[in-house]
Amino acid sequence: QYKTCPLQYRLRVLLGFEAPCASQMGYGGAVHHMMRRVAEHTRAFGALPDGDDLDRLFDREFYLPYADGEAWTTMEARARSLVEAYLRDFPDDLQRVWEVERPFELHLPHANVSGRADVILDREGGVAGALALVDYKTRRVARDDAALDLQLQAYTAAARGEGFDVRAGYLHD
């Protein structure tokens, strides 16, 4: 957050200033939450959720605190489409989920950097114990976005500092 806009970081994180609410506020978090629930479902049942499972998950778990009926319907449909695309495009990854929403801290000489890996996959390259970090973005991102590269590098350094064998980092937008 700091790298994107230091002033916004100061106002929101350090001073607690809350900007006015927009109907789409919370959309990224809602999609991340649904992806976490899909990963947890896959791990618990050993199979990807089917259409009925997704219906139940979305009915029970999808939440946008500031959206009205029309905005809610539009954003829920878009989120459902994203989740279905992920299930279609990355089913093998969902079968390798080791942990979701794993917090990390990287201790540097003059700062501590904290974050949360969206998903950690096991068996990277077919090797048990070899991990891959996955970060979800709900918007299209430029492949040369240095801030995103830095985020994955920081998570990788923090995980390796904890003794994990991280072999890859992926950005899924």
Give the helices and strands as they follow along the chain.
Answer: HHHHHEEEHE
- The mean pLDDT is 88
Distance between the termini: 18 Å
The gross shape turns out to be flat
Q: How are the strands of the largest sheet arranged?
A: 1-2-3-4
Based on DSSP secondary structure assignment, what is the total number of beta strands? 4
Beta content comes to 15-25%
Structural class label = alpha+beta
Uncertain ranges: none
Helix content: 40-55%
Query: What integer value in Å does the Rg equal?
Result: 17 Å
Describe the structure.
The chain is of the alpha+beta class and 173 residues long. Helices cover 47% and strands 22% of the residues. The protein has 6 helices and 4 strands; from the N terminus they run αααααβββαβ. The protein has helices at residues 6-14, 27-45, 51-61, 69-89, 91-95, 146-161, and strands at 97-108, 111-121, 130-136, 165-172. It has a 4-stranded mixed beta sheet. Strand 2 (111-121) and strand 3 form a beta hairpin. Helix 2 crosses helix 3 (51-61) and helix 2 (27-45) packs across helix 4 (69-89).
